[in-house]
């Protein structure tokens, strides 16, 4: 390696290595301008990046060979830009996975782009997937991604669902083959059809849970007096419930049963309830409906389970904004900022 590594290469390596250390409060305008010109950073972001990045000299032994700007980096930057990584997307990609610039353009990066683009259907989806999981570009394509994709298609998962799985849970196609096989078998043994819309949602959850964790989740749900049959039935209708923490489920179950006085079967019938936020959705709606019922503005037999499921816009329109003049403080109560006030006579 030459005794003197070009300054622009050192700065790029500092981005790639992601070593965030304190630096001088008076950055060189040349260095900041280089970040703007070479990496596409807006001026404010370039200044902030310079102030928070400093090269760790212990990581310099291969700096010159790795960071040949014209022969190594520029072709990769050009390729990324041509494929949708423009503006801030390019530096964000590099910072999220610096090792991508150490991968060969022709034998690694391009084949990954081609495979993902063929599955996802357009560059826009490709950009979304790589923003969520930039390491899709640096794994062994033939050993990891391709076998899992081939298996999913062989097992009958429609191609558009494979694309959605990669978009929503890219980590799924990076699992070891035996884990993917096990997850598929487990879901099919529950009676889930690979062509059902719910299948990929169930796969997203099942593949990320080792068997020991899965069993703990089941036992945790049993502590709420759910049978295993009820738990698996709820999972098949709303797979994310088994990805929730026991603390969240316990908090919601307590509120549903002890405060709202819902029957256990109401929750089992609509496990989606367990995915709601107690502070942003459940409690505010309950507080509003309780007030409206107490003032006889809505029927007392209005089912709370129905009111939990309607979308935010409809709830605000039909149960908050409609009554704000009749019930002062109702909007504040819903927003969690106060209590209802007595209306002046």
From TrEMBL:
Belongs to the mTERF family. InterPro entries: MTERF, MTERF_sf. One of its GO terms (biological process) is DNA-templated transcription termination. It holds the Pfam family mTERF. It comes from Populus deltoides. The keyword Transit peptide applies. It comes from the Eukaryota. This is Uncharacterized protein. GO terms for molecular function: nucleic acid binding. Residues 1-25 form the signal peptide.
């Amino acid at each position: 390696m030459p005794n003197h590594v070009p300054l622009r290469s050192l700065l790029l390596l500092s981005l790639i290595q992601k070593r965030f250390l304190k630096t001088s409060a008076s950055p060189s305008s040349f260095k900041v301008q280089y970040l703007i010109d070479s990496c596409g950073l807006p001026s404010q972001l370039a200044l902030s990046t310079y102030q928070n990045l400093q090269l760790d000299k212990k990581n310099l032994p291969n700096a010159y060979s790795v960071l040949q700007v014209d022969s190594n980096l520029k072709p990769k930057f050009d390729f990324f830009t041509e494929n949708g990584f423009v503006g801030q997307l390019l530096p964000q990609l590099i910072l999220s996975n610096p090792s991508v610039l150490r991968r060969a353009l022709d034998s690694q990066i391009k084949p990954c782009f081609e495979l993902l683009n063929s599955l996802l259907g357009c560059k826009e989806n490709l950009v979304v997937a790589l923003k969520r999981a930039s390491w899709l570009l640096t794994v062994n394509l033939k050993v990891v991604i391709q076998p899992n994709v081939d298996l999913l298609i062989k097992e009958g998962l429609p191609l558009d669902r494979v694309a959605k799985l990669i978009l929503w849970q890219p980590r799924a196609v990076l699992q070891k083959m035996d884990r993917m096989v096990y997850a598929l078998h487990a879901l099919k043994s529950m009676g889930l059809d690979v062509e059902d819309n719910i299948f990929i949602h169930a796969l997203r959850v099942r593949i990320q849970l080792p068997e020991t964790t899965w069993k703990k989740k089941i036992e945790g749900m049993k502590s709420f007096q759910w049978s295993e049959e009820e738990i698996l039935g709820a999972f098949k209708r709303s797979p994310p419930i088994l990805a929730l923490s026991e603390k969240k489920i316990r908090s919601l179950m307590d509120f549903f049963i002890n405060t709202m006085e819902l029957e256990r079967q109401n929750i089992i019938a609509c496990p989606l309830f367990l995915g709601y936020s107690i502070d942003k959705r459940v409690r505010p709606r309950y507080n509003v409906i309780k007030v409206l019922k107490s003032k006889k503005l809505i029927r007392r037999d209005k089912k709370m389970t129905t009111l939990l499921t309607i979308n935010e816009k409809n709830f605000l329109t039909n149960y908050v904004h409609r009554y704000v003049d009749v019930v002062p403080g109702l909007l504040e109560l819903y927003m969690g900022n106060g209590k209802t006030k007595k209306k002046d006579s």
